[in-house]
Design goal:
Layout: H1 2-14, H2 18-21, H3 30-41, H4 46-55, H5 61-74, H6 79-87, H7 93-108
Helix pairs in contact: 1-3, 3-5, 4-5, 5-7, 6-7
């Protein structure tokens, strides 16, 4: 069952179809959510960016980490403000490390 959705996510990502990926970020399966979030990182659209930003505050540390990494993939400087804000309240060491890496990548892309 998940294999079908994962294959669908791969196809949507290859087509940079943010509209198809966005609903999958709310799936019950964290594996599906994470795959969809990674896919959104490859999409160059406002909808993808606007979906990723609130996921930086998600209850799941894995989702927060994936969202931060996906924001880095978008290369949008506007990501910086959202990530810096969340760093002040983030408690998970792995998420903080991902945030620091993302901030460095955003800085290097300027």
């Amino acid at each position: 069952m998940f294999g079908n959705k994962l294959a669908k996510i791969e196809k949507l990502t290859a087509k940079k179809n943010a509209a198809g990926l966005i609903p999958l970020t709310a799936n019950k399966s964290e594996e599906i959510r994470l795959a969809a979030i990674r896919g959104l990182g490859a999409c160059d659209s406002d909808d993808a960016f606007n979906t990723l930003v609130p996921l930086v505050h998600d209850a799941s540390a894995a989702v927060r980490k994936a969202a931060v990494s996906a924001l880095a993939e978008t290369g949008r400087p506007a990501s910086r403000v959202h990530i810096e804000h969340q760093m002040h309240v983030e408690k998970d060491a792995q998420v903080i490390a991902a945030m620091q890496n993302t901030l460095r990548r955003i800085k290097d892309n300027r």
